[in-house]
Amino acid sequence: MTEKVRLQDPISAVLGHRKREKYEARFWAKVDQSGGPDACWPWTGSTFKDGSGRCKLPSGHFIGAHRMAAAFCDNASPGKSYVVQGCKNKLCCNPEHGFYSDRFQAAQDKMMEGTSPVLYIAQKGAHNPKAKLSDLGVLQIATCFAHGETNMEIASQFDIHHSMVSAIRRGKNWTHILERAGVDDAFLSAPRRPKERPAYRPAVEAVF
Hints:
The protein has helices spanning 10-15, 20-28, 65-74, 103-113, 117-122, 135-146, 151-158, 162-169, 175-180, 185-188; strands at residues 54-56, 62-64, 82-85, 98-101. The chain is mostly helical.
């Protein structure tokens, strides 16, 4: 039975690499330290989708630039610890602005700041930061159902995707607003206005 090979931490591999000095110089060249030792040091390289800085390791892995800065400063990999930017600047790479934290504490901090994705799941309706509709908008959409408007027509009016309108019509989303307003299933399932189809016109006229 073959023994499992344990892969080395990619950050530790950089710290122990023979070309570490070259890589470290290239890394700090992308950090703007012009503000002085107490200011934020913004990362000027590429970023993740959330706006935080990212750097590419020789192994091909992408990691947070602030994690790599902490590793160079302490000459040790953060491992499974979180490196939290105390200044709340996602691009900051100043090691003096960061501190180590565990996963639970980092999640608690995000909950307190209101930046945790868990909050988006827990908050319903218009209280959800990612909501595209208001309570009044949902009731207006329900009225459009009664008038026989199609999902595509309603979606274009409210600048949302037609699948969201369909979910409201089928009672999958925003049910707490519809129930509170006394909107029943019969109201939502009102017959839609038939589409106007152009009169049939043959492509080639028959020749007799």
